[in-house]
């Protein structure tokens, strides 16, 4: 186990430890045959926007590969057939559950992909506390697989900056060589320890969020929204009648804040964070007002 200044620091350390830079003069989005897999940082799109940033900072080669249109993960056979996925990439990031879609991936399909990969695989489980299952057993089973967790989402400690990796001792030792001294602040350590003493409270909170998420998904579907199946603390929905960008403005006018991502894969969707029942009821009432009044 390695604890970091948020999981973001650990993702950056993994890039430094496991990927060879190619130099700023030859940086490009797609890897070339000349560079080889040791320079490649690979990830699905859409997913966490930090991954390409880390690759660029390290002067590595980015290899973004699109998810399916419904944001599900391609099978190993499909990835082989498509040809864009690099099974020898030095470092592969997989966000599970996915963000921004919220779609979860089973440990069985993750295991099939991990077994096919030759380089290091980071399973980024930032939202896993709201999911049906986790992939921790894969980090304990395979020497090239690491699970990344954070206290920022489910435990609401984003300002305290505490995350952790679980992986094979040799991987953790390699990461420790590039880790800064005293990288986790004392207050964050105290706060993280305190949450571990209150797990029953937090698990009750997780269940409440999941129940509210499913209720709101059903009600939005009845209003004509396309709610993707979510295993996170948010919903990713395609709105009816108006474009997602128009809905963003109409909801904002009613003091309801949601997120819209202006990218080709995501521009038709809104991301709605699950709040209290009162907040979600306000969202639903605003949606009805926009549609029917």
Structural descriptors:
39% helix; globular; 2 domains; Aspartate Aminotransferase, domain 1; Aspartate Aminotransferase, domain 2; 293 residues; single chain; 16% strand; seven-stranded mixed sheet; alpha/beta
Q: What would you say this structure looks like, in words?
A:
The protein has 293 residues and is an alpha/beta fold. It has 2 domains: 2-196, Aspartate Aminotransferase, domain 2 (3-Layer(aba) Sandwich), CATH 3.40.640; 200-292, Alpha-Beta Complex (Aspartate Aminotransferase, domain 1), CATH 3.90.1150. Helices cover 39% and strands 16% of the residues. The chain has 10 helices and 11 strands. The strands form 2 sheets. A 7-stranded mixed sheet has the order 1-7-6-5-4-2-3. The longest helix is centred in the C-terminal third of the chain and has 24 residues, at 199-222. The radius of gyration is 20 Å and the shape is globular. The termini are far apart. Residues 24-29 have low confidence and may be disordered.
């Amino acid at each position: 186990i390695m604890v970091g200044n948020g999981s973001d620091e650990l993702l950056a350390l993994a890039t430094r430890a496991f990927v060879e830079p190619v130099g700023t003069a030859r940086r490009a989005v797609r890897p070339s045959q000349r560079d080889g897999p040791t320079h490649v940082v690979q990830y699905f799109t859409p997913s966490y926007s930090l991954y390409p940033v880390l690759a660029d900072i390290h002067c590595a080669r980015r290899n973004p590969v699109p998810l399916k249109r419904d944001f599900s993960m391609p099978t190993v056979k499909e990835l082989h057939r498509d040809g864009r996925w690099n099974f020898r990439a030095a470092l592969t990031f997989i966000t599970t559950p996915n963000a921004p879609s919220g779609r979860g991936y089973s440990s069985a399909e993750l295991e099939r992909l991990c077994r096919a990969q030759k380089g290091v695989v980071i399973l980024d489980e930032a939202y896993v506390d709201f999911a049906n299952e986790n992939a921790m057993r894969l980090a304990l089973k395979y020497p090239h697989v690491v699970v990344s967790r954070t206290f920022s989402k489910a435990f609401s400690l984003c300002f305290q900056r505490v995350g952790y990796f679980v992986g094979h001792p040799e991987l953790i030792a390699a990461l420790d060589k590039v880790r800064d001294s005293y990288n986790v602040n004392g207050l964050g350590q105290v706060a993280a320890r305190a949450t571990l003493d209150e797990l029953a409270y937090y698990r009750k909170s997780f269940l409440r969020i999941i129940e509210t998420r499913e209720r709101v998904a059903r009600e939005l579907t009845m209003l004509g929204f396309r709610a993707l199946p979510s295993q996170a603390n948010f919903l990713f929905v395609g709105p009816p009648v108006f474009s997602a960008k128009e809905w963003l403005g109409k909801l904002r006018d009613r003091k309801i804040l949601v997120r819209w991502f202006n990218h080709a894969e995501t521009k038709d969707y809104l991301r709605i964070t699950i709040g209290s029942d009162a907040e979600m009821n306000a969202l639903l009432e605003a949606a009805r007002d926009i549609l029917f009044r």
